[in-house]
Amino acid sequence: MTARDHARRAAQRFGTADRGEAIEAGPGLPDRLSAARERKGVDLARAERDTKIRVRYLSALERGDYRDLPGAVYTKGFLRNYAIYLALDPEDVLRQWRRERGDQVGPEPVIVPPRPLEEPSRPLNFSPSVVVAALLTAGVVLFFVYLSAQLLRYSKPPELTVSNPATAVLEVDDSATTYRLAGTSSAGATITITAPGHEPYLTTALADGTWSEQVDLRRGQNRFDITAENPETGKTADTPRTVVITVPFLVFQAPTLVVSQPVDGTTYGNGAIAVEGTTTNAKTVTVTAAFLGKDVPTAGHSPAPAPTQGASPGATPNPGSTVDVADDGSFSLPPLELTAGRWAITITATSTEGKTAALTRNIAVAYSGVNLVVQIKGGPAWIKVWIDGKLASSQAGGVYQSGKTLTFSATTSIEIRTGSSGNTRFTLNGVSLGALGKSGVAETWLFQPPAPPQKTQRQ
C-alpha cells in the first residue's frame, strides 16, 4: 500500500476540508518507518534482534497492515519502541498513526468483567480430619526442632570458664598446700586438669554446669592446664584455660633432695651413669664423682663408703656438671662417663639464698664386653655401626648433628664408620679417647678391647 493510498483513506475519513492537508502532509507512516530503517542501514532481521519485536510485526508496521498486529495497545507499544530505535519522535509517530489508521482498525472492545458473587460468610467448622492434619503438622515441626537442637548440641564443643581463681595468675600464702579450682562448663563435660609432675585431675561438670577440684600445691610456681571434653561427642573446648599459682619459698628454708638415679650400692655394666631426681627450694643441682679404687666388690657386698674430706691419696675427683632445676622441681644431668672401679657420686642442690642439701651414692662400674659412647661435636657426622660383626639395623646409616650422644654395647666388638672422624669423639669402657681422625675425613674404627682402636677398610 503506497503513501498515496494512505493519504486517500485519511481524506475519506476526515472529509473534504482535510483532504488537501492529508495529501500534503508528506510521506505516510509506513514509508516513513521504512525510510528511517534504510537510513539506519539495518534490515528487518537486525531490527528484530535489536528491538525484540518480531519481524512479522515490524513488517506489518512498515506496510500499514495494522490488522496483522495483536491490538491497539500492543501496536502503540511497538510504534513507540520502533520510533525510538529509528531516532524518530515517538509522540509524533503515534499522532500520525492515529490520523492514518482510518478504518483498518476497529474500536477496541470494552470488556466489562462480571462482578463476582459474594458468598455469605460461614462459621468455622473443624472436621476430625483437619484436627488430625494439624496435630500431625505440629508433631513434625516439633520433631524437626528437637532434631535441630540435638544436631547443634553434638556439633558444638563444650564451653569452659574458670571462676576460682578470678585471675589466671595468683600468689597464695606461703603455708598453702592445696587450692580449689572451680568454674563452669557444659553439663556432663569431663574436666581435665594437668600439672607437671602430677597425675591428671579429673572431674565432671554438674547438671547446672558447675565444676570444682582440689589440687595440690608445692612451693614455687604451680601451673595447671584445664580443658573440657564432651564424653558423648569427643569434642574439646576451643579455648583451654591455664592457671598459675605461686607459693612463696620460706626465706631460710633449705632445699630438699631426692635422688632416683643412680641407686646406692649398685654395680653398673657400663660407665654412662644417669643422675636424676627431684628437689624443692633449689635453683641448681651439681654432681661430682670421686674415684675410690679399681677393686670392684663381688656380689652381695656394697662398695666402700665415700671418702670424707682429706681422703687418702689416689682418690681422683670427676669435675661433674651443674644444671638448673625444672619448674616442677625435677632435674636430670648428662650421664657421667666413669671408668671401671668404685665411685662416690655426690649430688648437691643449691637454693637462691645459697642453702644446700647433698646426697652421696656409692656405686661400682664393672664393664662386661664392649661399651662405647659416641659423641658428635664440632659439626655434623654420618654414622654407621656394626655390633659383633653385624650391621646394627637401627644405625645402618644416618647424619647426626653436633651435641648428639650415642651409646652402644657389644659382646666382643663394635665397629664405627664416621663421615667426619674429627667430629666424632669416642669413650671406650669409661676411658675417653677423643677424636681419632680429622674433620671431613671418612674413617672406620674397630673397638675390640683390650686391643687399642684399629682403623679398618669396612665401608
CATH architecture of the largest domain: Sandwich
| Oligomeric state of the chains in view | single chain
Distance between the termini: 110 Å
Q: Which outline best applies?
A: elongated
CATH class assignment of the largest domain: Mainly Beta
**Count of DSSP E strands?**
26
Radius of gyration: 52 Å
Biggest sheet architecture: 6 strands, antiparallel
Regions with little confidence, pLDDT below 50 for 5+ residues: 10-24, 103-114, 299-317
Name the helicity range. 10-25%
Task: Give the CATH topology of the largest domain.
Answer: Immunoglobulin-like
Kindly name the structural category: alpha+beta
User: What is the fourth-level CATH superfamily of the largest domain?
Assistant: Immunoglobulins
What is the mean pLDDT?
Answer: 82
Helix count, DSSP H or I runs of 4 or more residues: 8
The proportion of strand residues reads 35-45%
Number of domains: 4
Any overview of this molecule?
There is one protein chain. By secondary structure, the protein is α+β, with helices and mostly antiparallel strands. The protein folds into 4 domains: 3-100, 434 Repressor (Amino-terminal Domain), CATH 1.10.260; 160-247, Immunoglobulins (Immunoglobulin-like); 256-365, Immunoglobulins (Immunoglobulin-like); 370-456, Lipoxygenase-1, CATH 2.60.60. 22% of the residues lie in helices and 36% in strands. The protein contains 8 helices and 26 strands. It has helices spanning 3-14, 16-23, 29-40, 44-51, 55-63, 72-85, 90-100, 128-155; strands at 160-164, 169-171, 178-185, 190-195, 198-204, 210-216, 220-229, 241-247, 256-261, 267-268, 272-280, 284-293, 317-324, 330-337, 341-350, 356-365, 370-376, 381-387, 390-391, 398-400, 405-410, 414-418, 424-428, 431-435, 443-447, 454-456. Strands 18, 19, 20, 22, 25 and 26 form a 6-stranded antiparallel β-sheet that branches. Strands 2-8-7-4-5 form a 5-stranded mixed β-sheet, with no helix packed on it. Strand 18 (381-387) and strand 19 form a beta hairpin. The termini are far apart.
